[in-house]
Amino acid sequence: MGDATPETLYTVTAAASAAGQRLDRFLAIAVPDLSRTRLQRLIAAGCVRCGAETIVDPSYRVKPGVRIVVRVPAPEPATPQPQLLALTILYEDADLIVVEKPAGLVVHPAAGNPDHTLVNALIAHCGASLSGIGGERRPGIVHRLDKDTSGVLVAAKNDAAHRGLAAQFAGRTVERCYLALVWGVPVPRQATIHGNIGRHPRDRKRFAVVGRGGKPAVTRYRVLASYENRASLIACRLGTGRTHQIRVHLAHIGHPLVGDARYGARRHRAGVDPVLARFPRQALHAASLGFRHPRTGVSLHFESEVPSDLRAVVEYLKQL
Fold it and tell me: Do 38 and 116 sit in the same domain of this protein?
């Protein structure tokens, strides 16, 4: 892990044009390394001085000519501990890291999975550079994949990269393509699924397409191959990024993922085909990810090979 990171000081002097601006808004421009949200927390924590005065109100109005000092305390150790787990790294630089997440690996610690997560592995690999802006339990994480979903994932290694990547996900400019093996053959073979997603009205552990409330969700799919009427391999592209979105949308149109115990219909889980019925996880793979580098603006695109378990069942279906 190396030596502990010392606290950081940022010093700026307010120009005449800054007079009357909110302190958090002024600092967000003057100190681009820190997000406005993080600056608000630092102000509230008493880490910002205007002249000789400590300011704890983010809406404090800036006075021209005042010297402002922002103190960023040395980061406390993240709650997750570093653990040396194998990582398949597709790309890495000073700002971000792109990895292939295997099925079965949880992205960040949560109830029931306190350790041996991707976050534990990233902390061990990246050390003190890993961003904490995503929360102490999710340092560096800007998006996630379900435990049993495999594929490509990007994590930020500093605050500026986290902010830049998060803005792209929020602005829906990130290109994400998933491969999914579903029961049956969707009709039409190419379409866009629209449907607000919210908590299931009877099972709060599940999500569902809801008629009222929820959050708008858009999934575009295209059938790549169909195997009689048993199953189809489809490509899904996300217009939004809701929790369990692909799983919920495909189940909603009557074609749940093979192996999806939570959203798969009973008739499918019972299994017309014994090989498909035994597939041990939801057959979903994050095949590609494209975004702009948060520092350079260069377009990056990464692809993840189809894992062996999903590849084997597709080969089986081809032979029928």
Answer: no
